């Protein structure tokens, strides 16, 4: 990546590559307009390229003068653009060959291909958005549910940034007071007594610390709203796990056969219950004496059970319980779980009592047939009320930090705690000041102030090309 301010002009396809109504090739940097001029013939012969207007014309191959595609082009002159640089967008027809051809024509003008997230990284470097807003852009793109979208939207609008900036200003004020105490210790003692200390100590311990902690705690409490609920379907072979996956997501996602051991690997899909995303994992049936491939699958199943927010353990009630069920039970009971007594439509060999007697740790069991749509509807309702209610109730007012932000908040909280303790013990103010500074620096990484290169690399590597 070249130095700031950037001298290189970058380009990328900003839309999914494939057949679609329109595709966009985006160019940003000092040579954006010059490179466009070489490959664009406006329909009307106006030489001046008005900024923030759409221009209709043709993309032409300058070496052959062949017209390739009729396009609409926009030019956004610096600094009034997304990146803060000169930006050109070519709105062409979308298809593999045409997008590839236009992109290569742009590259041939001395423009280089953008790295993932590089447009947004430039926007960040030019002060168009801060780091938490840049992260919000990715999270907005990744959102699959109303809830995720709402959180990303709040972050993009700068809600987190405002909170962090307000805390930062207060910490800067505290640092200034501490400096003053250090420079004029006699004034502090004579005129203010220890009240100066008290004010600082109260501000740190009673106001800032609880606020920072509260925001950090939302990550653990409401992570499901941000990341979705990880739901794992587990059970012996042939109990109906894959049938349940298909029923929940409403399409034929996994292969279903009467042969036990059909699913060998983890199959993942998502569905949404009342605005909350549920990531559902169908797994290989657990049984002893399986072949090598199947055993690997079983190992994966047990691992995913450990990581699940909720495990649905399916039991086939038309067959007796066995030692394979005991093995599954041992893993499932330690996790939040729901037992499904499946195949209720068949003659029943075991009942609810058999399960509760054999596995005292089981908390909740529902009897149903995965083949009946009404039963699936009922199951969605059970998942919602039993496992998502808390999340939904507390959803509306609160912003929820992501993992990176939570770590920064934790770091700030620890430093604030140490600072408050030092000042209460009457320790050296230099030490207090150092902790306050540590807290401030941790908070600053959230919005990207003084963010080191590798942090930026990490954040922007999550972006797609063309963003
Ligand atoms: N065609 C297109 N659609 C798009 C984008 C884009 O880059 N191109 N966006 C890309 O993500 C999003 C819109 N976000 C944008 C945010 C800021 C600016 C922008 O030009 N900001 C200038 C102010 C412009 C003005 O003065 O009116 C600025 O911040 O200085 C443009 C798009 C979604 N849709
Ligand atoms: N009668 C009846 N058959 C069911 C029910 N649920 C699933 N089945 C049948 O049971 C068989 C096995 O279903 P799958 O969904 O493939 O079972 P699985 O648990 O994914 O099996 P493995 O992938 O082998 O672990 C299929 O023939 C399904 O049609 C049910 O509620 N009632
Ligand atoms: Mg299966």
From TrEMBL:
Entry's Gene Ontology molecular function annotations: GTP binding; GTPase activity; identical protein binding; metal ion binding
InterPro entries (UniProt xref): G_TrmE, GTP-bd, GTP-bd_TrmE_N, GTPase_MnmE, MnmE_dom2, MnmE_helical, P-loop_NTPase, Small_GTP-bd
In short, the EC number is 3.6.-.-
| One GO-annotated biological process of the protein | tRNA wobble uridine modification
Write down the required cofactor(s).
Answer: K(+)
Which CDD domains does the protein's record reference?
A: trmE, TrmE_N
Top-level taxon in the UniProt lineage? Bacteria
Protein family: Belongs to the TRAFAC class TrmE-Era-EngA-EngB-Septin-like GTPase superfamily. TrmE GTPase family.
Query: Which proteins does it associate with, and in what oligomeric form?
Result: Homodimer. Heterotetramer of two MnmE and two MnmG subunits.
What protein is this chain from? tRNA modification GTPase MnmE
- What's the source species' lineage? Bacteria, Pseudomonadati, Thermodesulfobacteriota, Syntrophobacteria, Syntrophobacterales
């Amino acid at each position: 990546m070249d130095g700031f301010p950037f001298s290189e002009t970058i380009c990328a396809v900003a839309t999914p590559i494939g057949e679609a109504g329109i595709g966009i090739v985006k160019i940003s940097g000092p040579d954006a307009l010059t490179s466009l001029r070489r490959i664009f013939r406006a329909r009307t012969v106006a030489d001046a390229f008005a900024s923030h207007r759409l221009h209709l014309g043709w993309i032409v191959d300058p070496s052959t003068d062949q017209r390739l595609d009729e396009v609409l082009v926009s030019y956004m002159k610096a600094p009034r653009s997304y990146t803060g640089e000169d930006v050109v967008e070519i709105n062409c027809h979308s298809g593999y060959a045409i997008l590839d051809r236009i992109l290569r024509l742009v590259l041939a003008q001395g423009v280089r291909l953008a790295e993932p997230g590089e447009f947004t990284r430039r926007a960040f470097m030019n002060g168009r958005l801060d780091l938490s807003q840049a992260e919000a852009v990715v999270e907005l793109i990744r959102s699959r549910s109303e809830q995720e979208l709402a959180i990303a939207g709040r972050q993009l609008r700068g809600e987190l940034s405002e909170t962090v900036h307000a805390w930062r200003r207060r910490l800067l004020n505290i640092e200034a007071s501490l400096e003053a105490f250090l420079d004029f210790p006699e004034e502090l003692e004579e005129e203010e007594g220890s009240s100066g200390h008290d004010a600082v100590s109260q501000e740190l311990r009673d106001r800032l610390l609880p606020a920072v902690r509260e925001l950090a705690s939302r990550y653990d409490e409401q992570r499901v709203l941000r990341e979705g609920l990880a739901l794992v379907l587990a059970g012996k072979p042939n109990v109906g796990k894959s049938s349940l996956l298909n029923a929940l997501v409403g399409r034929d996602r996994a292969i279903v056969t009467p042969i036990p051991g059909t699913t060998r690997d983890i199959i993942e899909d998502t569905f949404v219950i009342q605005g909350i995303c549920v990531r559902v994992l169908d797994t290989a049936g657990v049984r002893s004496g399986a072949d090598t491939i199947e055993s690997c699958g079983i190992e994966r199943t047990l691992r995913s059970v450990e990581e699940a927010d909720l495990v649905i353990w399916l039991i086939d009630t038309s067959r007796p319980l066995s030692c394979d069920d005991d093995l599954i039970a041992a893993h499932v009971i330690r996790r939040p779980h729901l037992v499904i007594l499946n195949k209720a439509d068949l003659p029943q060999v075991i009942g609810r009592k058999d399960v509760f007697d054999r596995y005292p740790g089981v908390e909740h069991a529902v009897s149903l047939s995965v083949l009946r749509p009404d039963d699936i509807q009922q199951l969605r309702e059970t998942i919602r009320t039993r496992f998502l209610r808390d999340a939904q109730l507390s959803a509306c007012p609160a912003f929820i930090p992501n993992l990176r932000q939570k770590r920064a908040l934790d770091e700030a909280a620890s430093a604030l705690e140490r600072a408050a303790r030092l000042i209460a013990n009457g320790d050296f103010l230099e030490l207090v000041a150092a902790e306050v500074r540590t807290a401030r620096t941790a908070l600053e990484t959230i919005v990207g102030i003084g963010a080191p290169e590798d942090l930026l690399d990490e954040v922007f590597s999550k972006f797609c090309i063309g963003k």
